[in-house]
Write a structure and sequence with these properties.
Blueprint (H helix, E strand, L loop, with lengths): L2 E5 L3 H17 L5 E5 L2 H6 L6 E5 L7 H8 L4 E6 L5 H6 L4 E4 L4 H20 L1 E6 L2 E6 L3 E7 L2 E6 L2 E6 L2 H7 L4 E5 L2 E4 L3 E5 L2 E4 L4 E3 L5 H14 L3
Parallel strand pairs: 1-2, 1-3, 3-4, 4-5
Antiparallel strand pairs: 6-7, 8-9, 8-12, 9-10, 11-12, 13-14, 14-15
């Protein structure tokens, strides 16, 4: 974790979150840069990406939900709000955590610990692909979804599509728990799912991945269980 952004329009809450974030960084011996922003517009004007964004769900101007969509899937979003009933909004944009105000230091520390754990895993884990005699490695965190047609596998990533011959069953064994077999011909990275529509999972990129009828309930429950575990 090298960078943290905090976006909060209430100056008192912003100051407290910054203070706790700096305390966390010191306690873990990290060298993470911390920046604060009073509005979503300020954050959007700042170049570069942040590993973690502590984001007020209800902001004047562009609100937290819309801002999270614009930030894309690279930054890990931790929503901070006074209203627990907005948890489903966080689910819709793929937030990693959801903290209810007033935020206790222990809650923030636990959320940041979990983000660090995920960042550590996703930075290291890769998928090896042998294509036309050339061996390539793809970061699992970059994979959006995978599909198969006519024994041709297509691994869709944020940097393009990788195609090679194989089966989805073998590929599934090489992936981890963030991937869900939503259809006999598709695997989806649940970290990039922003919502479920009838017969489809909608990704943060706007793409839609089919969810078979018999797996819709299981898929929805897995996403709800994931969200429930991340609310403090």
């Amino acid at each position: 974790m090298n960078s943290i952004a905090i976006c909060e329009d209430d100056s008192f809450t912003l100051e407290k979150l910054e203070e706790m974030a700096r305390c966390y960084v010191r306690s873990k011996g990290l060298h993470a840069a911390i920046r604060t922003f009073a509005s979503g517009e300020e954050l959007m004007q700042e170049p570069g990406e942040y590993d973690v964004v502590l984001l007020d769900l209800k902001l004047p101007g562009i609100d937290g939900v819309e801002l999270a969509k614009k930030l894309g899937g690279r930054s890990r979003i931790i929503f901070v709000t006074a209203y627990k009933e907005y948890a489903l909004d966080a689910f819709d944009v793929g937030a990693v955590h959801y903290l209810v105000k007033p935020v206790a230091k222990e809650q923030l520390f636990l959320a940041l610990d979990r983000v660090r754990e995920r960042l550590g895993k996703t930075e290291k884990e890769t998928l090896g692909i042998l294509k036309n005699g050339v061996y390539e490695r793809i970061l699992l965190r970059d994979i959006l979804y995978c599909e198969v047609f006519d024994h041709q596998l297509c691994v869709h990533t944020q940097n393009g599509c990788y195609e090679y011959f194989g089966t989805l069953d073998v590929l599934e064994e090489k992936l981890d728990g963030r991937f869900f077999r939503c259809h006999r011909s598709f695997l989806v990275n649940t970290e990039y799912v922003v919502r479920q529509e009838k017969g489809a999972a909608v990704l943060i990129s706007g793409e839609k991945v089919p969810v078979s009828r018999r797996r819709q309930k299981e898929f929805r429950q897995s996403m709800l269980d994931f969200l429930k575990d991340e609310i403090f």
